[in-house]
Specification:
Radius of gyration of chain B: 29 Å
Distance between the termini of chain B: 30 Å
Largest sheet of chain A: 10 strands, antiparallel
Structural class of chain B: mainly alpha
Structural class of chain A: alpha+beta
Shape of chain B: elongated
Number of strands of chain B: 8
Number of helices of chain A: 6
Shape of chain A: globular
Order of helices and strands of chain A: HHEEHHEEEHEEEEEEEEEEEEEHEE
Number of strands of chain A: 20
Distance between the termini of chain A: 63 Å
Helix content of chain A: 25-40%
Largest sheet of chain B: 2 strands, antiparallel
Oligomer: heterodimer
Chain lengths: 409, 622
């Protein structure tokens, strides 16, 4: 009887496992593609690909129903590496296949890393507007801005997760403690006077806008064209006791202002920001159409790129198939709004971008070698003779054979 | 004699094909072909009026052929001329296809009233146009993906009616009987008209009736400019760049400058002559316009001449007929006269392949693009590449299988293409993100060849199953040859799908800063790669043999069809440029049919009709 280790090894290097895992990945990709109609692309990635197990609700409990992308991809990776290590023996005949699989391993690792590291932000710029930050599509933050000095803002940002866990927190820059009372990932705001009896609407705030409005919790949405509007209700507690309970939401456009110890503070909930050591100014957005039609020929944004140290101070042009690559970021033309006067750039940070290129190169090389070997083998082999015997059905219905004279000259 | 019969048949077919490529000629007194070659700008592309007439008819009634009462078939360009210049006559031509029963009821017509039970004239729709417009507005508010079949039919018919009216409005003011005579009067008194328009009545006050005509015309010009579908008047902007104007805009300019434009005048004379039935004047004016453009824009005219000839040759219809004939001959060859029929079929396939190569080549030249630019051209190219592979197979194996597969795939893909062409002109301008010849030529072509090869493997597998299970013609050697073919083609398919997918990733990284985004179209391509990889590994691991390989390859048909058409139906993602909602049921039907064949294949081999042949140790053929 084989030891368990040996059995495990045999399983891990088996071609059958490869086939089974490939079938699983196929089902996974198919289901994930279909589910994009309901969940949108981002939630699908979270649920299907960047997970170990996919759960589905049955009644009120979530039960595991299928292995997720990390599990299938991870096993596939182990299977690939193990099989190649176990059977590795260098020969020219197999070198192509081996290179190709090495490339595949790298591609899988690259996809894992970009799943972990890749960040997507967007930057909206009106004409002549300058920004040195991009905003998250989904993440939000609660910010406290020390606006005492009109020349600059000092910002303390609290990510959503901290609010959701309702842990009170104290920051050296803040002269007060922040105690999250409630957090709704999605909500809408309503005037207190009209919200009487609205389900879930609890009047908690007693300062700022919160005195007149309440937040009504909403189910989280994943629909591609909708976004969530989170609300956080926080109590600020200074050394001398409470400063008030504030309601903050991404739906409130203006920050709320208050003073503590002679300094002016602003509190606001907003999209999470990524600040960059350079700024972009939109000079002009253009939407070119084919003459006499509305078919888009090109979208482009002429921008001015500037760093504070003055090393870069130049115009750049972003258009379809031609993003701006700068400081490890890719800015591509993703859309426009406001009567073609505001451009929307998507900002992608993907530190592992090089891996797919290396992987592709390895795979291409492997394929070229493999097919080169096959092709030379095929050409060297003598051609098969034309079929000179074909089956026919005889009158009695019994299959028979008739030789057809070799008449091909 | 018998020995040379295949050669004669193929040569005869080639001769017939050559005839279709002759220069288009107009029968009768009117040189309509000359008029049909005149260029116009529409949807961003300069094309001959002949193309406009054909694609409009295709959009409105699902075919280019038009039979007008009392049972006379007319050319598309003749229809265009009649519709614009003899609307009283053409409004009676049955050019609107309506099949939805509720829509018929809404319009107050019965299918029995229509030509061929489903085609109706503008005059028949006239009384209910207002109601149609109202219903279409209601349907417009519903997102296109969630419209009911009735709403879809309403919107489609409304769009066709609008197209019809905008085509008329390109050349004349719609609804006016004496537009051309009034325009002729205007042309004769241009200086006076200009003076009127500029408000300088200096010498001799114009006749008030004339003043009214000019005012009316100037209003009509601006309406025509707004609603014109085509821009048929070539001119130059101040920078010397080519520009195309609507008839309305051209006449507005003429009125304000007082200077006549030869192109605008030519259309007035052409129209008047067509209306008044004066062939000599019509021919002379068309020829004059033709020569004028020939001298000023020889490149445009050369393209239009080629396109008009391409239109009249209808290469893809020819190849479709040839493919289906070759397919039948090759199938027959397995039962009777194998040698002669196989040669005949092979010859016809080569001929059909050459014709579609010419067709695709001309399309590429006209567009200055790689072969695949939209769903329609992908169907052409999938068929073309699959047939090319079949020709190679037939060259090496010489057993008729390549010809059968080529005939079947060639025919099927051209049929799909034919249905995809119903949306209008298939030589479209490329939307912004696709406007990159480099990536279209590399990524898109490679991926499409991957589709071709996967389909070909699947069709070879279909042949395996059908011949084995339903006929007594599949012997061991043929089964083995088929197995080799399928395996080889799947290797090829894996190579192209993988390379194509990786190239797509690189394009995505170049454009969007990420290699892979799990977008539906990307996933579709990935599914093909994985499926092919499954087949290869299953075979290498000894999990499947010939029959299993065939069953898996048929699964490849499903996967490829899904990735080719299915993902476009989801209507989500960055790649959803080829959206289509009508073909959904066809896709379901195709998938079901493939599953049925897989079931058939899973019958125990002993139950196959070729069981005895497959089991007997027949003498090896090679």
């Amino acid at each position: 009887m084989k030891s368990f280790i040996l059995q495990l090894r045999d399983l891990m290097v088996a071609l059958k496992l490869t086939v089974v895992l490939l079938v699983f990945s196929m089902l996974l990709v198919f289901a994930a593609t279909l589910d994009q109609v309901n969940l949108g692309i981002w939630a699908v990635q979270q649920k299907y690909f960047q997970s170990f197990i996919i759960y589905a609700p049955v009644g009120r409990v979530m039960i595991p129903i299928f292995p997720g992308g990390y599990l299938i991809g991870g096993l596939l990776l182990i299977n690939l590496v193990a099989a190649h290590l176990y059977r590795f023996k260098f020969s020219w005949r197999k070198s192509g296949i081996q290179l190709m699989h090495a490339g595949l391993i790298l591609l899988l690792i690259g996809e894992l890393l970009s799943g972990l590291w890749q960040q997507d932000y967007h930057m909206r710029l009106g004409e002549n507007e300058t920004k040195s930050y991009a905003e998250s599509f989904r993440g939000n933050e609660l910010v406290f801005i020390d606006a005492t000095d009109p020349a600059f803002d000092d910002v303390v940002a609290i990510p959503e997760a901290r609010l959701a866990s309702k842990t009170p927190l104290q920051h050296p820059k803040l002269p007060f403690r922040v105690v999250p009372k409630s957090y709704y990932p999605n909500s809408f705001l309503q005037a207190r006077s009209t919200a009487v009896g609205a389900p879930g609407a609890v009047a908690q705030a007693n300062a700022g806008f919160g005195e007149t409005i309440v937040a009504v919790p909403q189910p989280v949405t994943h629909a591609p064209k909708e976004s969530n509007a989170p609300t956080a209700i926080v109590e600020l507690i200074g050394p001398d006791g409470t400063l008030g309970v504030y309601l903050t939401s991404t739906q409130l456009v203006l920050p709320q202002q208050f003073s503590v110890a002679g300094r002016t503070w602003k509190i606001a909930m907003r999209s999470q920001r990524a600040y960059y050591p350079f700024s972009l100014t939109l000079l002009k957005f253009s939407y070119d159409r084919y003459p006499g039609t509305d078919i888009p020929k090109n979208f482009s944004s002429r921008l001015h790129l500037k760093t504070p140290d003055g090393r870069d101070d130049r115009d750049v042009l972003v258009f379809m198939n031609n993003p701006l690559r700068y400081a490890g970021l890719t800015f591509y033309q993703a859309g426009f709004e406001n009567n073609e006067r505001t451009t929307i750039l998507q900002v992608v940070r993907n530190p592992s971008w090089i891996l797919p290129y290396v992987a592709s190169a390895l795979m291409s090389l492997g394929l070229i070698i493999q097919f080169g070997i096959h092709l030379t083998g095929f050409v060297r082999k003598p051609r098969p003779a034309p079929a000179d015997v074909v089956p026919v059905t005889t009158k009695s219905g019994v299959p028979g054979r008739v030789a057809q004279g070799t008449s091909v000259a | 004699m018998k020995k040379h019969l295949p050669t004669f048949v193929v040569l005869g077919a080639a001769l017939l094909v050559a005839f279709t490529w002759l220069k288009p000629r107009s029968r009768g007194e009117y040189a309509r072909a000359t008029f049909g070659q005149l260029p116009t700008l529409v949807n961003g592309r300069v094309k001959p009026l002949d193309t406009v007439a054909r694609t409009s008819l295709l959009t409105m009634q699902g075919r280019q052929r038009l039979v007008v009462p009392p049972g006379r078939a007319i050319e598309p360009i003749e229809w265009l001329l009649d519709m614009v210049y003899r609307p009283g006559l053409a409004d009676g031509y049955p050019v609107f296809e309506i099949v939805h029963p509720d829509l018929l009821a809404l319009l107050g017509v019965a299918s029995a009233d229509g030509a061929g039970q489903k085609r109706f004239s503008a005059r028949q729709l006239e009384p209910k146009l207002r109601e149609l417009e109202r219903q279409a507005k209601l349907a417009d508010e519903v997102e296109s993906a969630t419209r009911t079949p009735f709403q879809r039919a309403v919107v489609q018919l409304r769009n066709n009616v609008v197209l019809y009216q905008r085509l008329q409005g390109t050349f004349v003011a719609v609804g006016s009987d004496d537009f051309l005579p009034r325009l002729t009067t205007l042309e004769k008194n241009l200086p006076a008209a200009q003076a009127l328009m500029n408000g300088s009545h200096g010498s001799g006050v114009a006749d008030p009736a004339f003043g009214k005509t000019v005012l009316e015309l100037s209003r009509e010009f601006s309406t025509m400019d707004t609603f014109s579908y085509l821009r048929p008047i070539p001119t130059q902007d101040p920078g010397g760049n080519e520009q195309w104007k609507t008839t309305g805009a051209a006449w507005t300019d003429i009125l304000s400058t007082g200077k006549a434009w030869p192109a605008a005048s030519a259309f007035v004379r052409i129209g008047t002559a067509w209306h008044d039935r004066q062939p000599d004047t019509f021919n002379a004016a068309s020829q004059e316009m033709f020569e004028l453009l020939q001298s000023t824009r020889p490149d445009v005219m050369a393209r239009c001449a080629v396109e008009a000839r391409f239109n009249s040759a209808e290469p893809f219809t020819t190849s479709m007929a040839l493919y289906v004939t070759a397919f039948l001959l090759a199938v027959l060859s397995w039962l009777r006269w194998p040698h002669a029929l196989q040669r005949m079929a092979f010859g016809l396939i080569v001929l059909a392949f050459l014709v579609s190569t010419a067709g695709i080549g001309i399309r590429m030249w006209l567009e200055a693009r790689p072969p695949v630019t939209n769903l329609y051209s992908s169907a052409l190219f999938v068929g073309w590449a699959a047939v090319a592979l079949c020709l190679l197979l037939e060259h090496f194996f010489r057993n008729g299988i390549g010809s059968v597969a080529a005939g079947l795939i060639g025919f099927a893909t051209l049929l799909i293409a034919h249905h995809l062409a119903l949306g209008g002109d298939t030589l479209e301008m490329m939307r912004a993100v696709l406007d990159s010849n480099f990536w279209l030529a590399t990524h898109v072509v490679t991926i499409t060849v991957g589709y071709s090869a996967t389909f070909l493997a699947g069709f070879l597998a279909l042949i395996h199953v059908f011949r084995g299970a339903l006929t007594r013609t599949l012997d061991q050697a043929t089964a083995r040859a088929l197995g080799k073919m399928i395996y080889g083609i799947i290797c090829f398919a894996t190579l192209f799908s993988l390379v194509g997918t990786v190239l797509g990733g690189i394009w995505a990284d170049q454009s969007w800063g990420r290699f892979w985004g799990w977008d539906p179209k990307e996933n579709g391509a990935l599914l093909i790669v994985i499926w092919n990889a499954i087949i290869l590994h299953a075979r290498w691991g000894g999990l499947v043999r010939e029959r299993g390989l065939a069953m898996l390859a048929i699964g490849g048909n499903i996967v490829t069809a899904w990735s080719w058409f299915g993902v476009n139906m989801l209507g989500v993602g960055l790649h959803s440029y080829g959206f289509m909602d009508a073909a959904f049921w066809w896709l379901i039907g195709f998938v079901a049919s493939q599953l049925a064949v897989v079931l058939l294949a899973s019958l125990p081999e002993a139950k196959w009709r070729s069981a005895a042949l497959l089991a007997s140790r027949a003498p090896a053929l090679r």
